[in-house]
């Protein structure tokens, strides 16, 4: 017999959704407003989106964000996956300690992460630029990949790998034909999350970016200080859409991997 939830819980959920999503919805709506006055609605237009495509500063910030996001995602995915695989065989005590260290960049405040990396680069006399932004993004993105891949490894167990070894498979054959197909959805999901976090990051990038490495979030912040314009609303809308699509894709790959696993475990 199902327990009925209290009506106040439903009201609370609705109010929470309104509080979270109404400001985002307003940004999206006013990105199509046919006037520069944000408070007045004067009609529907796509002009602000078209003007973004001809703005050299926006295009430069976009290319910086894509470059940083792609490079940092590739490296973070590789390091996070290898880290999850290598720490899998550790004892419980050491594994718990290493997991805590790998989870730390996820829970540590962004301002502390950005400031600590800035101090590190200054101490090492590394000039701030695109390279420092990439290194910073790898630092926090790697943990997201590690968390997702570790969860996939914990869910698959070691029975299939042990069975493959008993049948004479080499460690490489076991990894290629057993482990990798099982964790691949998690690797893709972790990579998509890492790219999303890189694309949306402002705080860490703000500390370690140089004058020629302005990313889209930093560009938006600089423009908002002068006032909210329809172009900024349009740019924020595009970032929202891309972020939502990437998160949905990451969730799709995770669910697909779980479905494949259940299907393979069904008795024949």
From TrEMBL:
Example GO BP: transmembrane transport
Chief subcellular location equals: membrane
Entry's Gene Ontology cellular component terms:
plasma membrane
The residues the entry assigns to the signal sequence are none
Record field: transmembrane: 12-32, 66-88, 100-121, 133-154, 202-220, 232-254
> Membrane topology per the record?
Multi-pass membrane protein
Q: Which Gene3D superfamilies match?
A: MetI-like
Entry-linked SUPFAM superfamilies: MetI-like
Location(s) in or outside the cell: Cell membrane
Q: Which UniProt keywords apply?
A: Cell membrane, Membrane, Transmembrane, Transmembrane helix, Transport
In this protein, which residues make up the domain named ABC transmembrane type-1?
Answer: 62-250
Highest taxon of source: Bacteria
Q: A Pfam family in this protein?
A: BPD_transp_1
The record's family statement is:
Belongs to the binding-protein-dependent transport system permease family. CysTW subfamily.
What is the name listed in the Swiss-Prot or TrEMBL entry for this protein? Spermidine/putrescine ABC transporter permease
- Origin species, per record, is Paenibacillus rhizosphaerae
């Amino acid at each position: 017999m199902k327990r009925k939830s209290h009506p106040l819980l439903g009201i609370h959920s609705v109010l929470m959704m309104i509080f979270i999503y109404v400001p985002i919805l307003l940004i999206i709506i006013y990105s199509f407003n046919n006037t520069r006055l944000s408070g007045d609605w004067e009609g529907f237009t796509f002009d602000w989106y078209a003007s973004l495509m001809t703005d050299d500063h926006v295009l430069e910030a976009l290319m910086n964000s894509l470059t940083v996001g792609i490079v940092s995602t590739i490296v973070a995915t590789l390091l996070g996956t290898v880290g999850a695989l290598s720490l899998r065989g550790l004892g419980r005590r050491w594994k718990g300690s290493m997991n805590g260290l790998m989870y730390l960049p996820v829970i540590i405040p962004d301002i502390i992460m950005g400031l600590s990396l800035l101090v590190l680069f200054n101490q090492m006399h590394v000039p701030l630029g695109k390279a420092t932004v990439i290194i910073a993004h790898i630092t926090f993105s790697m943990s997201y990949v590690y968390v997702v891949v570790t969860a996939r490894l914990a869910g698959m167990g070691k029975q299939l790998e042990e069975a493959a070894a008993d049948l004479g498979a080499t460690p490489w054959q076991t990894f290629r034909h057993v482990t990798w197909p099982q964790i691949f959805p998690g690797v893709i999901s972790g990579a998509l999350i890492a790219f999303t976090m890189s694309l949306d990051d402002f705080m860490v990038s703000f500390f370690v970016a140089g004058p020629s490495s302005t990313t889209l979030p930093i560009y938006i912040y600089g423009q908002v200080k002068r006032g909210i314009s329809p172009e900024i609303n349009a740019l924020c809308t595009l970032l929202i859409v891309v972020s939502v699509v990437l998160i949905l894709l990451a969730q799709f790959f995770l669910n697909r991997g779980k479905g494949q696993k259940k299907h393979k475990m069904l008795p024949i």
